[in-house]
Amino acid sequence: MSTQVRFLTKNFGAYDTNSIGAYMNIGGFKALRKAVTMDPEDICTMLSDAKIRGRGGAEYPLGRKWSQARAVKGENKVIICNADEGETTTFKDRELIKNDPFNLIEAMIIAGFVCGATDGYIYMRAEYACYRPILLNAIRQAKNYGFLGENILGKGFDFNIHLYSGGGAYVCGEGTALIRSIEGKAGRPRMKPPFIKVSGVFARPTCLNNVESLSLVPHLLLDQDTYMNCGMGESIGTKLVSVAGNVNNPGVFEIPFGTTIRDIIYNLAGGIQHDREIQLIQFGGASGKVSDASILDTPYTYDDLRAAGVMVGSGGLLVIDKRTSVLDFLRMNQEFFSEESCGQCTPCREGNLHIKIILDKLAKGEATEQDIKTMSTIAKVMSMSSLCGLGETAQNTLQSAMKKFPEVFAIGGTKA
Questions:
Q1: Which residue intervals define the domain NADH-ubiquinone oxidoreductase 51kDa subunit iron-sulphur binding in the entry (predicted)?
Q2: Are residues 349 and 303 in the same domain?
């Protein structure tokens, strides 16, 4: 039976998060002191050796991203920490901000050193307003102690961090929409190229990372062996997962890759309420794919989940029991995307609306076979032609459900 591990979360509850002195007493900023004595490219190599993929959902290798950011020519580079975390059922980054804010600040400074940046932005979702004072205090104290500002640790390295809160738009989790929001513009995605590593916020070279991705770096610099000894196959290390829905013990858990879905749900999350049967499990937030209980013995790794038809994504697991039908769940999920689409591109704006209409017809027993074919076509068009990741992935849930639960879409059949 698997249990939680304490690598990324080892500082949780170990110090007063209002005090930089308390953080330093448990080894805080030792990783930064070590980093500034190293060749930045060696740090990128360390991250590549650890095979860290971006923890926000895109799964882009962190070491490669930092190495590419270093190679970009230009002054006044920027590091952005994406703390928007707008995916439903995903709340792991919130725990890192709340329980270990100084580690995030230290991680951003290290990222700035490695990539050659002079400024950092933390873009935090509007609903996390109660955590703003925690981060503002951490930034202020880090500056007072000389870890931010000019000539950090006497290495001729200048770096400052700014906190920016969004307006609550889900689409601002997408990189270019997030950047436009920081710039004071409407949070809508833009076409690429130019890619943000070349021209990002305020047209400056920008490297954007998720909270969890960044937070790993200080721990790795001080204790790479522990991380490398966790995991399974190509999925090395640990992962924060947030489990929600019809479980007895919803929450955030740090697991070694390779832990089975059954262990996560029935051991860490305490099992299903009142011992009900599982209807479906959604992986990776609102834009994640779904499966039924047949996936329970699958190891939680990138490759195993992909082979099972789902993905790690943002690290969320939503467990739905038999009280909710698959169709009602899909309608609820579609309601979210119909409201959160920014409306800029036609495939996403119109596609989400018409899929919602067809799902409502299906629930009323009024849908035709042609409606089902039309819905499937719209979903495919959205995934291929939408401007940003929201439209491209909005129908992951529907498309995976059509494969896993075909009886739901059988006209005249039984709706599960």
A1: 327-372
A2: no
The 3 state secondary structure assigned to 320-336 is EECCCCHHHHHHHHHHH
Q: From the CA atom positions of the chain, what is the Rg in Å?
A: 22
The number of distinct structural domains making up the chain is: 3
Helical (H) or strand (E) element with 70: helix 62-71
Residues 200 and 267 in one domain: no
Answer yes or no: do 305 and 342 share one domain: no
Q: Does 205 lie in the same domain as 277?
A: no
**What are the pLDDT tens digits along the chain (416 aa)?**
457 899 999 999 999 999 999 999 999 999 999 999 999 999 999 999 999 998 988 889 999 999 999 999 988 999 999 999 988 889 999 999 999 999 999 999 999 999 999 999 999 999 999 999 999 999 999 999 999 999 999 999 999 999 999 988 899 989 999 999 999 999 999 988 999 999 999 999 999 999 999 999 999 999 999 999 999 989 999 999 999 999 999 999 999 999 999 999 999 999 999 999 999 999 998 999 999 999 999 999 999 999 999 999 889 999 999 999 999 999 999 999 999 999 999 999 999 999 999 999 999 999 999 999 999 999 999 999 999 988 999 999 999 999 999 999 998 654 55
> Does residue 272 lie within any of the structural domains?
yes
**Can you name the residues that pair with 208 across neighbouring β-strands?**
80
Task: Mention every residue, 6+ apart, whose C-beta is less than 8 A from residue 305.
Answer: 283, 298, 311, 312
Distance between CA atoms of 75 and 202, rounded to whole angstroms? 12
Examine the fold and report which residue of 170, 198, 226 is the final residue of a domain before the chain moves on.
Answer: 226
Domain that holds residue 400: 326-407
Consecutive H or E run containing 338: helix 326-340
Measure CA 81 to chain center. 11
Write the CATH number for 379.
1.20.1440.230
